[in-house]
Specification:
Blueprint (H helix, E strand, L loop, with lengths): L1 H7 L15 H4 E2 L4 E2 L1 H9 L6 H16 L4 E4 L3 E4 L6 H8 L9 E3 L10 H14 L4 E3 L7 H6 L2 H8 L2 H11 L5 E4 L3 E4 L27 H7 L1 E2 L10 E3 L7 E3 L1 H10 L4 E4 L8 E3 L2 E3 L2 E2 L1 E4 L13 E7 L2 E7 L14 H29 L11 H12 L2 H34 L18 H7 L10 H7 L10 H9 L1 H7 E6 L2 E6 L3
Parallel strand pairs: 3-7, 4-5, 5-6, 8-12, 9-11, 12-16
Antiparallel strand pairs: 1-2, 4-17, 7-8, 10-11, 13-16, 14-15, 17-18, 19-20
Helix pairs in contact: 3-6, 4-6, 4-9, 8-9, 12-13, 12-14, 17-18
Keywords: Hydrolase
Catalytic activity: O-phospho-L-threonyl-[protein] + H2O = L-threonyl-[protein] + phosphate
Family: Belongs to the PPP phosphatase family.
Length: about 500
């Protein structure tokens, strides 16, 4: 049976989902006496889930480790540095395949969740790696590791769907424990966003109270949210307000140079921004060493950008970028809705249409004058007429009214389902909760970046934008409004005829 189902799958490289839980006894690694990351990885690759108790255990144990780490980690190289993942678990698995976690040092720059549909798997798997290899795996905090962004984007709904709200709240508490930055070999400063006008010496980072929601101002905010300026190389400029994010700052080469000199560092490695080739190098500071590296590790970001992912390898002054492409992943319906709920309104509408046609036909036959002789072609009609004679005419009309009302409701539901994607595409940005099919045509990188710009801003200002741009669903628009949308507002004004009737205005659109 399983072999037959696998044969029917469109993408045979993706295994069938696992609908079972694994008992804690079988998850245990007998050598380390903790959860075996390989078993969990395999289970997650089959879309399996852990139990609530298992998730809570992982959150508790990892938080204890994080609480014992400083805000600023001091790590010896060589090290691999990985940028934003954003819920792309299958790409993360591909990226980590060649690593030996017991030997390799790996630093993650944050943004493990949101935008991708397997954010929970990404974060939980990385926590298990941290617990099993605490001296080799290091997780920094990104701007998306907070309740304000995860409740606005996809992560909160994902966790509620896969577990419950309590698990989500416990995960956001776990976010508050993550370290803020790292120094590799006393030469490379690793952080999610960048530097701050409030930061002169790196030791200041250890004085931050990090065990809280990320604020929208101050040093902690800038470490998570800051970006290199677009015109980064301009001399004698240091910091400016970050208009792109509507929060924090942008920093220029002069500010970075001063920061690196005063802290005897060579370079800054950060994530936070999608790049077409997975990375970006900024103006060199010392001997062909870029002053800033941007590393982004989520290829084909949001299933839309068509960008590459990358990681950075650092070893004793040597910087090496490795690129990789995205791989196929299981399709997930928007808002995690199941296929029955997705198609119910369409199927119901079609069935009710057929039933309504039959009832209407019976009504017509019932009201027609009976004939004593029939042709061969009329035999079927006569049989239906005999059926209609049995039915009471009043009952027939009542049944027709019921089916018509049901059909109308199903039509509204279907239009809502079908137009939800169309409405989002008309917006000037990519919807943050849109799960696209992995086979559809992607935007080119520049178009996707432009449409997605609003999703890079802080959340506070966005409520007003959404409140002022609410659109009426297509199924609820009145006929005159639909006509105006079709012919355009200017033409509609010329065609409109407005009459006053009983203290009310009546608008009529003239026909051509």
């Amino acid at each position: 049976m399983i072999e037959e189902l696998e044969e029917q799958r469109l993408n045979k490289n993706i295994p069938l989902p696992a609908y079972h839980y694994i008992e804690t006894t079988y998850l245990a690694d007998q050598k380390r006496k903790y959860f075996n990351e390989k078993i969990i990885l395999t289970h997650f690759l089959h879309e399996g889930r852990l139990s609530n108790d298992q998730i809570n255990t992982i959150l508790d144990d990892s938080s204890k480790i994080f609480r014992n780490e400083k805000n600023l980690l001091e790590i010896e190289g060589p090290a691999y540095i990985i940028g934003d993942i954003h819920g792309q678990f299958f790409d993360l698995n591909e990226l980590l395949k060649k690593f030996d976690f017991s030997k390799d040092t790996i630093i993650f720059l944050g943004d493990y969740v949101d935008r991708g549909v397997f954010s929970l798997e990404v974060y939980v798997y990385l926590l298990v790696l941290k617990i099993n290899y605490p001296n080799n795996i290091f997780l920094l905090r990104g701007n998306h590791e907070c309740s304000s962004l995860t409740s606005f984007f996809t992560f909160k709904e994902e966790v509620k769907f896969k577990h419950n709200l309590d698990i989500y709240n416990r995960i956001t508490n776990s976010f508050n424990c993550l370290p803020l930055a790292a120094i590799v070999s006393k030469k490379v400063f690793c952080v999610h966003g960048g530097i701050s006008p409030h930061l002169k010496y790196i030791e200041q980072i250890n004085s931050i109270d990090r065990f809280k929601e990320i604020p929208y101002d101050g040093l902690m905010c800038d470490l998570m949210w800051a970006d290199p300026a677009t015109n980064y190389n301009i001399e004698k400029k240091y910091f400016e307000f970050n208009h792109k994010r509507r929060v924090s700052v942008v920093y220029y080469y002069s500010a970075v140079k001063k920061f690196l000199e005063e802290n005897n560092l060579d370079s800054i490695v950060r994530g936070h921004e999608v790049e077409k080739f997975g990375y970006k190098k900024f103006k060199c500071f010392r001997e062909n060493i870029p002053s800033v590296h941007t590393v982004f590790s989520a290829p084909n970001y949001c299933d839309t950008y068509s960008n590459l992912g990358s990681i950075l390898y650092y070893d004793n002054g040597r910087y090496e970028i490795k690129n990789y492409e995205w791989i196929a992943h299981p399709y997930v319906n928007k808002n995690y809705i199941d296929v029955i709920s997705q198609t119910f309104s369409f199927v119901s509408e079609k069935v009710s249409e057929f039933y309504l046609d039959l009832l209407t036909y019976l009504e017509e036959i019932s009201s027609a004058t009976s004939s004593s002789t029939f042709t061969i072609e009329e035999e079927t009609t006569n049989e239906l007429a005999l059926i209609s004679d049995v039915l009471d005419e009043v009952v027939l009309k009542q049944e027709i009214n019921i089916v018509q009302e049901f059909n109308k409701n199903m039509l509204i539901l279907r239009e809502e389902r079908e137009n939800s994607d169309e409405m989002e595409l008309e917006k000037p940005f990519l919807d943050s909760n849109k799960c696209k099919t992995i086979d559809e045509t992607h935007y080119n990188y520049n178009t996707a970046q432009k449409k997605d710009a609003i999703n890079e801003e802080k959340i506070e200002d966005r409520a007003n934008i959404r409140a002022s741009s609410i659109e009426i669903p297509p199924s609820m628009v009145c006929e005159n409004s639909k006509k105006i949308q079709m012919i355009g507002l200017e033409k509609a004004i010329k065609k409109c005829e407005i009459k006053e009737e009983s203290d009310k205005f009546k608008v009529k659109i003239k026909k051509d």
